Amino acid sequence: MSTIELLDLSVRAGSTTLISDVSLNVEAGTWCTVIGPNGAGKTTLVEAVAGLRRPSEGSVSISGEPVGSMSERERAKRVALVPQHPTVPAGMSVRDYVALGRTAYHGLLRAPSALDRKTVDTVLARLTLDEFSHRDVFTLSGGERQRMVLARALAQSTMVMVLDEPITGLDLRHQMTILELLQKEVHECGLTVLATLHDLTLAGQFADRLVLLDHGRVVLDGPSGEVVRSEELEACYGMRLRVIDVDGADVVIPVRH
Amino acid sequence: MTLVALATLGALAVAVVCGLVIGPISMGTSRVLGDVVSHLGLGHSTLTPLQSLIIWQVRAPRMVLGLLAGAMLAVAGATYQGVFRNPLADPYLLGVAAGAGLGATVAIVDLGGGLNTPSWTPLLAFGGAMVAVVVTWVIGGRGLRSSTSTLILAGVAVAALFTSSQTFLLQQSSPNSIAVVYIWLLGSLASATWSSVTLVLPYVLVCVVICVAAGQALDVMSVGEDESRSLGLPVRRVRLIVIAASSLGTAAIVSAVGLIGFVGIIVPHIVRLLVGTSYRRILPISVAFGAAFLVFADTIARTVMAPSELPLGVVTAIVGAPVFVIILSLRRQMVT
User: Fold this and answer.
1) CA-to-CA distance for B134 and A188, rounded, in angstroms?
2) Does the CB of B144 have a partner CB in chain A at under 8 Å?
3) Is A70 on the interface with B (CB under 8 A)?
4) Chain B residue nearest residue A67, CA to CA
5) Which domains does chain B have, with CATH numbers?
6) Closest Cα of chain B to A90: distance in Å?
7) Which residues does chain B have within 8 Å of residue A76's beta carbon, measured at their own beta carbons?
């Protein structure tokens, strides 16, 4: 079981502060979603946890170990990333793409081991990608493609996964598919998830906890039901929101002026 | 893939035979091969001692140097295209050609008096090439903080600086030395000897092995720098090692044979059309394909207008461009 700990984290790019003084603790086997308007610093936060951005101040740790002191290889065994705009290299098969997730395990000079191949097979089957496994990645639809990117992250066999807007551009059914697959990993395998989402209704339905980020700072951090009903949420987006309970799920609707 | 590999190896074998058999003095394929076999202790050669000398001291070193040059330039081109994720990358991208050109010009104009190509030309060409790449690497941010496009732009700037210095030197020198430099720049295997082969062989062997071993890393890098880092690839270290190996090997080849264009950019693309986009396949096939391609091109270069020779760089382009276009259109037909 792993936890994500951010302590007074600030990230700057030149003279611009992207996030400042963010402290956050995601318990092992739970799902935390970061919400907030565009430019709030969500992507920066995700990239810092994935070790792609160095903290200007403060620290990011996974199970107590600072992300910055790990080698790329060690880090790839601890935390997997689903980026917002994954690069899809035309000409590569779906299976080869998913197998990239095993890079940290077999290294660069050795061929994938039997365990590596088995892991890839298992993940392909779990995400019902086996029938596509020999297709060119470029021929997949948006939903299939996103499932494939998730499969690559799962093939890394990490206990922590960070996802940046994993359902952007997908239709309703594919959005649900991706989030339900992820929730299954959290419940059944104890995966720790830190995700960013724009859809407040889905964010509330799937996360154990919501963190509201604005101008690089944490504005509110709490159970989903409280955060979606908060005045702070309305203030951050600069608009009125209505929350309706539909069979126990909070549906967030923007109110037109 | 297996078919392509076998066909390439077959072409390589044919190229080796062509390199030994074809020449101004006709000796017959079976007699030449008989002489080669007799050197392995089997049977007796029917060639005269002079004919045997032509095979072993003229054609063989030239053929072997052609194999090494073709293999190195092709694999370096493929590696550069992978590491820069840029299909237009070639082995001269970071200033190797301009640096070698300036080094050779200094050797010919200042040290050789502009009349001939002095024996230290390869050394100065090699030095010039390495200086250019190192300068590019340093001003391009050592490939660490900066993106690869910064490195490419630094290469453009360094190449411009070295090329204009070379032009200045030439402009100050005699018309004769311009001709000598020009001939050197066009690239040729005509001056190949066993000593030039043994000089470049260690560089080429080590660098080709490193480049081919980088196939898996380059496949990971095809998803971009950030993603490959998140997958566990030490991107910066890989980039440094791979660029160093490609540049070193290219510099060694350029110092021995001058600037042979087109092989480094066209061979990897032909191979890519044949075997797909994985560098684990592209790199080894490029080694064999590039070697065979350059020996064929050289055979054409030295026979078509015998006894004079065509510039090798001209032949590689004249042969390479149609081959590329044919494979491109065949593939398009297959896809549609």
Assistant:
1) 53
2) no
3) no
4) B230
5) 60-335 (1.10.3470.10)
6) 8
7) 230-232
- Which of B217, B222, B224 shows the shortest C-beta gap to A108? B217
Q: Which amino acid is at A21?
A: D
- Write the residue in A73, A104, A108 that is nearest to B216 by C-beta: A108
Q: Which residues share a beta bridge with A6?
A: A24, A60
Q: For chain A, say whether B210 makes contact (Cβ under 8 Å).
A: no
**Which residues of chain A form beta strands (DSSP E)?**
4-13, 16-26, 31-35, 57-62, 65-66, 79-82, 160-164, 192-196, 209-214, 217-222, 241-246, 249-254
Taking CA atoms, what residue in A is nearest to B279?
A92
Select the residue of B217, B222, B232 nearest A73 (Cβ to Cβ). Answer: B232
Mean pLDDT in residue range A217-225: 91
Q: Is A108 on the interface with B (CB under 8 A)?
A: yes
Report, in angstroms and rounded to the nearest whole number, the Rg of chain A calculated over CA atoms: 18
The residue in chain B having the minimum alpha-carbon distance to the alpha carbon of residue A90 is: B277
| pLDDT mean across residues, chain A | 91
Q: Is the CB of B220 less than 8 angstroms away from the CB of A103? A: yes
Tokens of B216: 């898996």
B271 exposure class (CB count in 10 Å sphere: 0-12, 13-18, 19+): buried
**3-class secondary structure per residue, A22-58:** EEEEECCCCEEEEECCCCCCHHHHHHHHCCCCCCCEE
Report the residue of A103, A116, A137, A162 to disrupt the B interface, i.e. the one with the largest count of B CBs within 10 Å.
A103
Q: Which two tokens stand for residue B326?
A: 């044919």
What's the rounded Cα separation, in Å, for the pair B196 and A11? 55
Domains of chain A, residue spans: 4-254
> Which helix H or strand E contains B80, and what residues bound it?
helix B60-83
Residue that has been written with the tokens 């200086």 in this structure? B131
Show the tokens assigned to B201: 């062989």
Out of B214, B217, B230, name the one closest to residue A76 (CB). Answer: B230
Instruction: Name the fold adopted by A4-254.
Output: Rossmann fold (3.40.50)
- The tens place of each residue's pLDDT in chain B, 336 residues long, gives 688 899 999 999 999 998 888 887 788 888 888 888 888 877 777 778 888 888 888 889 999 999 999 999 999 999 999 998 888 888 888 888 889 889 888 888 876 665 666 777 788 888 888 899 889 888 887 655 557 788 888 889 999 999 999 889 888 888 788 888 888 888 888 888 898 899 889 999 999 999 999 999 999 999 988 999 999 999 989 988 998 899 889 988 988 888 888 888 889 988 988 898 899 999 999 999 999 999 999 999 888 887 788 888 888 888 878 877 887 787 777 666
Strands A192-196 and A160-164: parallel
Contact predicate B250/B129, CB 8 Å: yes
Give residue A121's pLDDT band: very low, low, confident or very high (50, 70, 90).
Answer: very high
Out of B214, B223, B232, the one facing A104 most closely (by C-beta) is: B232
Tokens found for residue B5: 């590999």
> Contact A239/A255 with Cβ under 8 angstroms?
yes
